[in-house]
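[job 0412] stage=fold_complex status=start
inputs:
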Amino acid sequence: MPEKIALGRYVFERLNQLGVNTVFGLPGDFNLALLDHIDEVDGVRWAGNANELNASYAADGYARVKGLSCLITTFGVGELSAANGIAGSYAEHVPVIHIVGVPTVKATKGKLLLHHTLGDGRFDVYKKMFAQITEKAVTIDDITTAPHVFDEMFRTAYVTKRPVYIALPSNFIEEKVPADLLEDKIDLTLGPNDPQAEEEAVEEIMKMTVAAKNPIILVDACALRNEVQDLVAQLADETQFPIFATPMGKSGISEDHPRFGGVYVGVLSKPDVKEAVESADLVLSIGGLLSDYNTGSFSYEYSTKNVVEFHSGYTKIKSAIYNDVKMQWILEKLIESLPNVLGDYTPVDLPASPQAYKSLVVEPSEPITQSFLWNRVSTFFKPTDIAVSETGTSAFGIIQAHFPGQVIGISQVLFGSIGYATGAAAGASFAASELNPNRRVILFTGEGSFQLTTQSVSDCLQQYSTMELL
Amino acid sequence: MPEKIALGRYVFERLNQLGVNTVFGLPGDFNLALLDHIDEVDGVRWAGNANELNASYAADGYARVKGLSCLITTFGVGELSAANGIAGSYAEHVPVIHIVGVPTVKATKGKLLLHHTLGDGRFDVYKKMFAQITEKAVTIDDITTAPHVFDEMFRTAYVTKRPVYIALPSNFIEEKVPADLLEDKIDLTLGPNDPQAEEEAVEEIMKMTVAAKNPIILVDACALRNEVQDLVAQLADETQFPIFATPMGKSGISEDHPRFGGVYVGVLSKPDVKEAVESADLVLSIGGLLSDYNTGSFSYEYSTKNVVEFHSGYTKIKSAIYNDVKMQWILEKLIESLPNVLGDYTPVDLPASPQAYKSLVVEPSEPITQSFLWNRVSTFFKPTDIAVSETGTSAFGIIQAHFPGQVIGISQVLFGSIGYATGAAAGASFAASELNPNRRVILFTGEGSFQLTTQSVSDCLQQYSTMELL
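[job 0412] stage=fold_complex status=done
writing structure:
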């Protein structure tokens, strides 16, 4: 690599280091020069979507599989079409880096009546809009600090699990920056927990565990976003507590896990699952996100007040909040500590309904019901599948399907934008092909939702030699 | 009509009075109850678009033909997908009424973690975003004032020629309002000009006209938006000055008008048109909008400083601004006054190039060039056609086509969002069918742009028994 490289190349070198191997978006005259640098970086490819909404959904789907993604659009006309997708990523804690090619600093200062502006000299409007739906929104304004700003924004997206917005004036793209900046990798590690608060919290949770006869674990959306699935499984292994998932937490624990008890959705749960969760005398809730669709319209009815919530930035025990006690570190501590206080605990039986698909009897003469469909689909899944389901019938239905092995479920349960699933499936297909060329992405959608973003099918065709429409 | 009607019905009764006979948008659970009221109003129909971006483009296209339009979306996931279309309407001065069905006042106050929210209790985010790209954004918060607020917002859109945003909490839709409010029509008339300022401006323009040997009229975008085409034609009739159009002003004057001289785009003009405009010693510019694409990248080169600009809110003579001298009224005054001071004026010859298509000779062996195409297309147009051209090759090319009779040209020259034209054509098709069932809408686009909003084709199919793909 030369000593100095263009800022445009720097951006893609960094993304490559972060495992972002596909870049989504559309060309436009304020980002064309940037896109030309993709080819300079081995390991990064351009997806080239059909429109920006689909691109933003694709970036969201990709990030849910690979942990981070990048979307590139152009000033005004491009970026605004991605607003819905970015807002969804914000709502659902998905880290998408949105880079927007914008007019030069000179044109901006001159308030020129350029195309793609509102014609009134306000060049900062779009950034102001995106500031509302991203963790942070910045404009690159100095080539000497630009690499640092990009690094910081990439880190912010990764650590906060939220989208960020970077406006890149086109005059900076070819400006040179030192290549050796790339030698220091971007630090993505979390800071440690507050040791005193963590110790108190662990002690309190141990006390509650000793007293509990019937504790459960409930895994939710932010366990997936914070990528603690392995810790969740270890916690279930070590404690043998029954473990349940919410709709947004589905695939936070392998459903082949011997202690997996089913999906809990308040009053919409299977009766035996509802009973098992609501009769617990201690609930360890990991990454909870209590939206209406995720909770059966807020119908949780725990009989106990002994609820411990593990979040990305804090832990809450009953009403007490322990700030700066992040789920990653305290779960590690509990996996070590809890087995020592489980002397009296006898593992309870699990609900039977989640395994009902195994005994499914099919009579060809009977009508195909939703219940039949989703049970039957359970036998179709392979352990590495990625199952994307659309808001509505598909997302509600798939709750009752069994995900074997490491199946990843993707659904926009909180934000619930129809059309999302098709775009997200396209993005997930790029991620899947990077992880394992045989990995399947399966989209469940309705014909109404499908028409919103149908172009996404063409976006992902290059990923597959075969595609089946069922 | 009963004495009291639901607010939902009131909205559509008012739209009907304003000539908005088609409503664009998509259903969603916060606007469903509103949409149910459309059927109660004879003369208003639901377009039912495939996605919100396409719906917003359709509403823009409809408003450019009929003078006002309405788009209905749902909270968050719906409205945000329309952001690009609404921003375009703002930039290009197109009055679109955007009504968004939002959660109830109770849910909003309770900051419930509802679907379609960002999950953080901020229910006002989307309105804040749209406040940046609309003339005015409001939330209905009281049933007693709601009819008045709707009336005011409808008037604001019409008078300012900009989009407005109205968030309608779903709890108000079925609330009753007095039906007799509908008897007083919404006042859409402009206030009068400042009489003193107008008199001074008219006097000054008359002086300049007496001194001029070679005055011209240049018609631009806002002449169309303010619907002064008849006054523009009368001014040309009465003065016999050559009249030119900008790309955004194309169809502001019939190109069959005996004094129509061609389209002026700075350095991109035909040489004889460029010479005719730039050698003028008085330019009467009506509704000027000086964006880069509209001016050949800011390449106007008038040899005179005698430029009079007529705008919707003021008139500018050389450097002097006459506030509150609106184009509508001062043009009427000038049509009366100017003929009296034209004693010495001899009408100059017009450029020949705009009529060149008439002598076009076609040799089947020759390649089809852009120049050939657009000249040839000129003979294909019928006088009532609506010609929609996409940003890029189509919009640049159509400048040289001849529009006969009352052809309406639609192109998003300033904002320049690709994909716009297909959606706008769909919207224009609804407007056209309301004006004259035989009126044709002709879309010029490229295969790249077409893929962004291709669903719009299905949106407008119900308008036509035949559709031709050329």
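[job 0412] summary: The longest helix of chain A spans residues 195-211.
[job 0412] exit 0
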